[in-house]
Amino acid sequence: MKIAILGGTGNIGKGFALRWGQMHEIIIGSRDLEKAEAVAAEYNEVLEKYGHMATITGTDNRTAAEKADIIVVAIRYSQLGPVMEMIRPFIENKIIISVVVPMEKNMCYISPGAKHLTVPIESKEFNSEYFCFSMPEAGSAAQEIQKMLPDNAELVAAFHTVPAKKLADLEMELDYDIGVCGNSMYSKEIVFGLVNDISNMRPLDVGPLETAAMIESLTPLLINVAARNEMKDISLKFI
Q1: Pyrroline-5-carboxylate reductase catalytic N-terminal domain: from which residue to which, for each copy (predicted)?
Q2: Residue 153 pLDDT more than 80?
Q3: Whole-angstrom Cα distance, residue 101 to residue 99?
Q4: Measured between alpha carbons, how far is residue 237 from residues 103, 174, 176, 179, 231 in Å?
Q5: Which residues contact 87 (CB under 8 A, 6 or more apart)?
Q6: Three-class SS of residue 229?
Q7: Predicted pLDDT at 118
Q8: How many CA atoms does the CB half-sphere of 162 hold within 13 Å?
Q9: In angstroms, rounded to a whole number, what is the distance separating the alpha carbons of residues 112 and 77?
Q10: In a domain, 233, yes or no
Q11: For labeling, which of 46, 120, 199, 201 is most exposed (least CB within 10 Å)?
């Protein structure tokens, strides 16, 4: 399959390219054509060291979407509107995979006298940063994307809980569960196959697209848990 990764020069895009590039044709999409081409060459070199003759190319987001069978939207939420408007004429009859998470960093202030604190706080107020899910009016980023698609394009939301650094580390086996939601069993089964293409990952059906908010909100949850408990790049496994 030809898989376009819009935002493929970013952290999560690198992991997808290196994992799927071993068996699929990958097109790295970016707002910066030269950066996309350079990054694609870098990914090919990495896979060559592991004995894989990959076909990874780089281009702009619009061209990547036009050439691909499957399009992974791995961009920041703030970029969603302009990118989707640009690629809309080229995505009819294609499967779109959203890994977009609308989240923001907030600050809370805790009194030094708070009984639940287990460490002494010398300042008058304890500054604590945390990430939270910023629910769009449509309910989720995936539902927002759905409104921007032509009627014959199919959308699936998945891969929100994959740690980017570990995904890009080909030395690691990723024993994770991946929640997948969408309104078409055909498109979900295609995504199940892509999950299974990554050794030891397990796809789980979360439900229709309306459940996307639940899996999108897991991303800031995992970031907060990791930051507060001296953990790195954590994910989920249902047992």
Answers
A1: 2-102
A2: yes
A3: 7
A4: 22, 10, 5, 10, 16
A5: 6, 61, 62, 65, 66, 71
A6: coil
A7: 45
A8: 32
A9: 35
A10: no
A11: 120
The counts of H helices and E strands in the chain are 9, 10
pTM: 0.90
- CATH number of the domain at 87, please: 3.40.50.720
Q: Examine the pLDDT at 136 and tell me if it is beyond 90.
A: yes
Domain that holds residue 58: 2-101+135-216
Burial 102-135 (b: 16+ CB within 10 A, else e): bbeeeeeeeeeeeeeeeeeeeeeeeeeeebebee
- Three-state secondary-structure class, residue 227: helix
**CB-based burial label for 89 (10 Å; 0-12, 13-18, 19+):** exposed
Q: Write the DSSP symbol of residue 140.
A: S
pLDDT, tens only, 62-112 = 999 999 999 999 999 999 999 999 999 999 999 999 999 999 888 766 555
- Is there a domain that residue 21 lies in? yes
Pairing of strands 177-182, 154-158: antiparallel
Q: Is position 112 within any domain?
A: no
**Phi, psi (deg, nearest 5) at residue 83:** -70, -45
